[in-house]
Amino acid sequence: MPKASRRCPAKGCKNLIKHTKYCEDHTESWATPSGWQRPPGWEKLRQDVLERDDWICYLCGRPGADTADHVTPVSQGGTHTMGNLAAVHDRTPPHCHRTKTNQDKAIRVRR
């Protein structure tokens, strides 16, 4: 049975939500300070990676991956090819992509 819509739990918010904790207005956006921009055809490429990996996160091995990650970051010579992309959790917990990105930043700072 499909899940019914409900109101966002943020105080005073009247937006309806499904399958999320809060509406987009009350979900912290994850800015890309690196300046990375999606290459042409990214949405199709992202979808192809998710389907290839069966929506299984390559970092934690759990289902529900929702985006594609550059295994070797573009800033370190990685490419936008299927061979360098893997499915990963980003928008939904456990946010493996954000954790990996923060760890990569910490390593770069220590150098």
TrEMBL record:
Q: Name one GO molecular function term.
A: endonuclease activity
Q: Sorted alphabetically, which keywords does the UniProt record give? A: Endonuclease, Hydrolase, Nuclease
Quick one: where's region Disordered? Answer: 87-111
> Which CDD domains does its entry note?
HNHc
- What are the Basic and acidic residues biased-composition ranges? 101-111
Using the record's annotation, list all stretches that form the HNH nuclease domain. 44-98
Looking at the UniProt entry, the stretches that span the membrane are none
Query: Which EC number(s) does UniProt give?
Result: 3.1.-.-
Q: Which residues form a coiled coil?
A: none
The record's Gene3D superfamilies line, in alphabetical order, gives:
1.10.30.50
Q: Which InterPro entries match?
A: HNH, HNH_nuc
Q: Which superkingdom does the taxonomy of this entry point to? A: Bacteria
The name on file for this protein is HNH endonuclease signature motif containing protein
